[in-house]
Amino acid sequence: MKIAIAGGGKLGLRIIEVLMGADHSITLIDKDEALLQRLSGTMDITTVAGNAKEVSLLREVGIGTYDVFITTTDRDEKNIVIGATAKKLGVPKVIARIRDPEHMNQYEFLKETFGIDHIVNPDRSVAEEINKYLIEKYSIKGGILHAGKVSLIEFGVDRMGHLIGLSVAKANGLLAESGMRLVALSKNGKIVIPTADNAKSVLVDEYDDLYVVGDRDRIDEAAESLIDKDEHTDLSRVMIAGGGKSGYYLARMLEDFGASVKIIEADKARCQYLSTHLSNVLVLHGDATDVDLLNDENFSEMDAFVSTTGFDEENLLLALLAKQAGIEDVIAKISRESFGELIEAMGVDMVLNPIEIEASHVTRFIKGAQILSSQIIQGQAEFIHMAASRDMILSGKPISHLKLPPGLAIVALQRGTKVILPDEETRVQEGDRIVILSLLTESFDLEKLLKVKHGLFG
């Protein structure tokens, strides 16, 4: 598939990195010639120096021959114009990053008027994932995800206390008697997907949450004892550090839910904007790292604390302060993976990377009908349901031969009406429905796994 991307920022580059796993033909358009020169030496892509707003440049690169055009520059208006131009010049699928709330309030109008097929908004996506976590206490807490006849259930390990202290391998030996398998654990807010190599060394700990897969009927039956149907959130008081776009979107969602929300924002003009656009949210002008301010606002009495400032270092510090204050749910937005590992080690309940989330959304949209369903879990992993074709790289090979990396697993197959919990020798056949669990950080390897033998999709 031929894909053109306008904008070599963090999101554009991450999308390129992921799509390269599927051997797409990729062209990057950007005005920064030095950047393009560096990338051309490290990535197998075509680079074009120039302004993607110029119709002559788009015609020169033959944009009408591309299958997908993605525009991720730093300005909404520019992305709208570029996307509309690409569509007019014949690109079948156009994807644009649009971030401002004023534009998102006209979401359908923008798509219909300018021919944009899909809008990506990292700030809103992060807010949606945090909102799910806070209101439902994890994205599937109290419920089950279905993928055909396969189901995934999440529950606290206390519901199966006899598994505590066991290795994943031993736990699965017990679960096999009930036709189920432990496929992931949440440890201190971090999703861990065991592999055949480490299943004997990864232990089920006292405070883990477990993700178990199995036949839909068996999971529904098990849910009677594993899930408290009357469970509800007691969420009432939330403090948000950072009144940028992510903080604004989240405050509006929580406001609609009925929670009492406080936002701390350092920029006075931004505070005025927030006060005007949020009806029942207390907006505080100040430095969120000011301990006196936090204490004055009853910081330690919050049910949840969310740090969404534009600085990873500040989010890291604030998350640490919140955990030390004993706040039950502490969530941080982190853009650098190295910081994510550090903040998870501190026991923070949820860490999200907006670039990883949105790159996943883009690749799922590009695949279209190939993906039957996809669900992000705890902002860190994907639960994917898709149909296997004969031309897929993974078809016909024992799973052991696929050399799957840690963080990526084929957790179930549906063959006709039968559900198979595969082992290392299981082969995926044409027509199988595949259920995959993958960390968002493994998107490149996931694309490699799902590509077809001639290297093209669709």
Task: Give a concise summary.
The protein has 458 residues and is of the alpha/beta class. The protein has helices at residues 10-19, 33-42, 55-60, 76-88, 101-104, 107-114, 122-136, 168-175, 216-226, 245-257, 268-277, 291-296, 312-324, 337-345, 354-367, 443-450, and strands at residues 2-6, 25-30, 46-49, 68-71, 93-97, 118-120, 144-147, 150-156, 180-187, 190-192, 209-215, 237-241, 260-265, 281-285, 304-307, 329-333, 350-352, 371-377, 381-387, 408-415, 418-420, 433-439.
Overall description:
This protein is α/β, with parallel strands linked by helices and 458 residues long. 34% of the residues lie in helices and 25% in strands. It is built from 16 helices and 22 strands. The protein has helices spanning 10-19, 33-42, 55-60, 76-88, 101-104, 107-114, 122-136, 168-175, 216-226, 245-257, 268-277, 291-296, 312-324, 337-345, 354-367, 443-450, and strands at residues 2-6, 25-30, 46-49, 68-71, 93-97, 118-120, 144-147, 150-156, 180-187, 190-192, 209-215, 237-241, 260-265, 281-285, 304-307, 329-333, 350-352, 371-377, 381-387, 408-415, 418-420, 433-439. The strands form 4 sheets. Strands 3-2-1-4-5-6 form a 6-stranded parallel β-sheet, sandwiched between helices. The mean pLDDT is 89.
